[in-house]
Amino acid sequence: MPPLIHVFAPGPVNQGFQGIDVEPSVITNFRGFTAMGYPGGTGTAKDSNGNTFDLATDMRVFQGEYVAADGSHHRGTFVFI
Q1: What phi and psi values does residue 15 have, to the nearest 5 degrees?
Q2: How many CB atoms lie within 10 A of CB 1?
Q3: CA–CA distance, 65 with 72 (Å, rounded to integer)
Q4: Which residues sit opposite 79 in a β-bridge?
Q5: Measured distance between the N- and C-terminal CA atoms of the chain, rounded to whole angstroms
Q6: Quick check: is 11 in a domain?
Q7: What total of structural domains would you count in the chain?
Q8: What is the DSSP string of 30-55?
Q9: Which domain holds residue 33?
Q10: How far apart are CA 6 and CA 81, in angstroms?
């Protein structure tokens, strides 16, 4: 069975997110600081037709302590892109 992965999108519901009281960390058993951003906009393809496309990303940084599946404690900085 594959591991359970949870990724919630905190932010205003009227902008397509899941609400402001949603867990921002994608690491279970985590205690620490989370910073996140949703950079987005319109890009232009590198082809000669000049096609445009919408871009939306989800970037998060976590710093703190987590407990691994084997019960060991780890401290560090983690990035989710």
Answers
A1: -110, 15
A2: 3
A3: 10
A4: 61
A5: 25
A6: no
A7: 1
A8: EEEEEEEE--EEEEE-SSTT--EEEE
A9: 29-80
A10: 14
